[in-house]
Specification:
single chain, 261 residues, mainly alpha, 10 helices
């Protein structure tokens, strides 16, 4: 399986060995993943419209009102492919979307190609939610579409939804067992997960160190001044000597000395 190219079509995909694992359920599961993510603020930003239709699309449409729907959709798809190759991804999305308006035909391969191509363009625009939705729609039309699962996995990876990305890769390999790009993406997911876990661990360790230093400082001040402190009712949970400025009491842990601002 190869990534998006001009003239990308939804040709017949290789089928995995063994009984098929209810492929239509992949679209349902992918749709469920989308619904779970819709409530998160990050994901909602990915659902914004790609933009209003531009004059070029309207002009192309106006030139061919009398053309058959399938031919018009194909022409618009080809223009979208050209825009994609030129890295005009937002324009590509508009052409693919216009092409899907011409639905008075039964060419399922064309419909799937438009959806997966638009997903590829939305990936480049970081519109990950829209990309996943297009892939789910493509799978409803043609369940055996590893490209849709591959692009869904890429979108989930970008959102750091590692379990969902792994699941999509697993499904894609069931359809395309020799998919080199899918296998590379699997490795990328594992590397990204490890890097993510390291960042989380480092952040937690920094927070623990910060809390430890704060507690040591509190005890040092209490010992020296015979005072006790708590943050009950204090602004932002700060102790009496703490404030929002850079001027803070500092404890030199090596010497045990307090440094007052």
């Amino acid at each position: 399986m190869s990534e998006h190219k001009a003239g990308d079509t939804a040709a017949a995909s290789p089928v995995g060995i063994g009984p098929e694992p209810s492929p239509i359920s992949r679209a349902d599961k992918l749709e469920n993943m989308v619904q779970k993510l819709r409530s998160t603020p990050l994901f909602m930003t990915d659902l914004t419209d790609a933009g209003e239709d531009n004059m070029a699309v309207e002009a192309l449409k106006s030139l061919a009102y009398d053309e058959p729907p399938e031919e018009m959709a194909t022409n618009l798809k080809n223009e979208g492919n050209e825009q994609f190759k030129a890295k005009n991804y937002a324009e590509a999305v508009k052409f693919y979307t216009r092409a899907m308006d011409y639905d008075g035909h039964e060419n399922k391969s064309l419909k799937v190609s438009l959806l997966t191509n638009r997903a590829a363009a939305n990936l480049e625009l970081q519109n990950y939610g829209r990309a996943i939705q297009d892939c789910a729609d493509a799978l409803r039309i043609r369940p055996q579409t590893p490209k849709a699962l591959f692009r869904s996995a890429r979108a989930f990876l970008a959102l750091e939804k590692f379990d969902e990305a792994r699941e999509c890769c697993k499904w894609a390999l069931e359809l395309d067992p020799q998919g080199a790009e899918i296998k590379r993406l699997q490795n990328q997911i594992e590397q990204s997960q490890m890097a993510h876990d390291r960042r989380v661990k480092e952040r937690e360790e920094r927070e623990k160190a910060k809390l430890r230093s704060r507690d040591l400082l509190k005890r040092a001040i209490e010992i020296r001044q015979g005072l006790t402190f708590d943050t009950t009712g204090a602004k932002k949970g700060l102790y009496a000597w703490e404030n929002d400025s850079a001027r803070q009491v500092v404890l030199d842990e090596s010497s045990g000395h307090l440094q007052w601002p």
